[in-house]
Design goal:
This protein is mainly beta. The chain is 14% helix and 41% strand.
């Protein structure tokens, strides 16, 4: 008897020691698994919330209960397939959508992973209603979401499904267009390419017919055209040319069925705005009182979300002749013809003045080296590696590049340092 009691004591002691030894490991295992499944539940819930933003017809009404399956969230939201700690898929998982007393939607993830199952009363509620839901996307299941009854910009792909409890028993899906007759559809999807009033339903293997769901498709596939007008873009300060509207740089198409707006900006400054044919901002080109080039960009957006863009420069030039007496670089402000004049430095001998005209493009940079009596006496104007003009000082040579059309050359009639002059002639 004493021997048996001793054995029992030893066994109990060993079990206690084993429990103390492995308790932290068991605790960690349970905590890790608990976190794993809790994270899966949270992830599915977030996917469901994002899903119903795109497909609000899945939201429950009037005490309804709806269930969105794991498979639906994977297909429509790209959600990762939940797996248990051994990597086995949690196939039977879904999210319950219900409404509380304040009419707010509540989400409960019901996870079924092997031996793990979410313990929540919502997962034990009655079956969800038998109704046909729809997902609307542009052109394909992977397209951008389309909201029913809003203006659409492309063909609408429609994919049908039923609540989770009924998904395995559907025999056929049907559609009714513009209050016509019910007709079977092949599979569970179809496309609308024009305005339609659509109703959908499903029939299960017991010939039970689901509640029907109806919605509107409205399409406007034509953008509001915006093109840069084919016209001179240069304007001369101090002339009547500036008495034009900035919108004259563009040609705008008419607004379509869905309306929309046209917005033009120069940098961050709004210079033109037209909302559904109502012009609210329309600036004059005369607002630009400094030489330079200004990029104006216009964007049209139809009510269905189609956009077009076009850009045009406003090139402002001054008719005033510019005189340079020091070495410098000059950037051409606008496409056009310019007169370039150079005079060499004048010391004991008279130098030369020469002038020519050529077409230069906006953004070209002329490098000007002005002759000095105390150094190099010739005035030289270059464009990149090309010498456009050399006006000698003293006995140096005077020449024009072949691209310059000579206007005149003469002996300088003053003494002192040289100079260069640039004057805009015409566009």
């Amino acid at each position: 008897m004493k021997k048996k009691g001793l054995i029992v004591f030893i066994v109990v002691g060993v079990l206690v020691l084993l429990g103390l030894t492995f308790y932290p490991t068991i605790k960690e295992f349970l905590e890790e698994n608990g976190d794993h499944y809790k994270n899966l539940e949270n992830a599915l819930e977030e996917s469901a919330k994002e899903f119903v933003k795109e497909s609000p017809n899945f939201l429950p009404e009037n005490g309804q209960i709806k269930k969105v399956s794991r498979a639906q969230l994977e297909r429509y939201r790209g959600a990762e397939s939940p797996t248990d700690t051994k990597g086995n898929a949690c196939e039977e998982s879904y999210v319950v959508l219900s409404t509380n007393e304040n009419g707010e939607t509540e989400y409960t993830t019901c996870l079924k992973c092997g031996k793990y199952a979410t313990k929540d009363r919502a997962c034990e509620q009655q079956e969800s209603s038998y109704e046909t839901n729809y997902v609307l996307r542009y052109e394909t299941v992977d397209g951008e979401a389309y909201q029913a009854a809003s203006w659409g910009k492309a063909d609408v792909y429609q994919e049908l499904s039923v609540n989770y409890d009924h998904s395995s028993s559907v025999k056929t899906y049907q559609k009714k267009i513009d209050n016509g007759e019910w007709e079977n559809i092949e599979g569970n999807s179809f496309i609308s390419s024009k305005d339609e009033e659509v109703c959908v339903r499903s029939i299960d293997e017991n010939n039970e017919v689901s509640e029907e769901s109806c919605y509107s498709i409205k399409l406007d596939k034509d953008p509001i055209t915006v093109t840069a007008a084919f016209k001179p873009l240069g304007y001369i300060l101090g002339t009547d040319q500036l008495n034009e509207k900035i919108q004259s740089l563009f040609e705008f198409g008419s607004f379509g069925r869905s309306g929309g707006e046209i917005v033009c900006k120069e940098g961050d400054t709004l210079v033109y705005k037209n909302e559904n044919g109502n012009v609210t901002v329309d600036e004059w080109i005369s607002k630009y009182q400094e030489e330079g080039n200004y990029l104006v960009s216009c964007t049209s957006t139809s009510g269905s979300g189609l956009t077009q863009e076009a850009s045009s420069y406003i090139e402002i030039v001054s008719p005033e002749e510019k005189t340079f007496t020091e070495d410098t670089k000059y950037t051409i402000p606008a496409d056009g013809f310019y007169q370039i004049t150079g005079s060499g430095a004048q010391g004991s001998r008279l130098g030369d003045t020469i002038s020519g005209k050529m077409f230069l493009e906006r953004g070209m940079v002329l490098e000007i080296k002005v002759g000095k009596t105390s150094a190099e006496t010739s005035t030289i104007v270059t464009l990149g590696e090309d010498v456009l003009l050399t006006a000698s000082g003293g006995e140096g040579s005077t020449s024009l590049n072949y691209a310059l059309t000579e206007m005149f050359r003469q002996d300088a009639n003053t003494t002192g340092n040289g100079s260069a002059k640039i004057k805009f002639v015409n566009f």
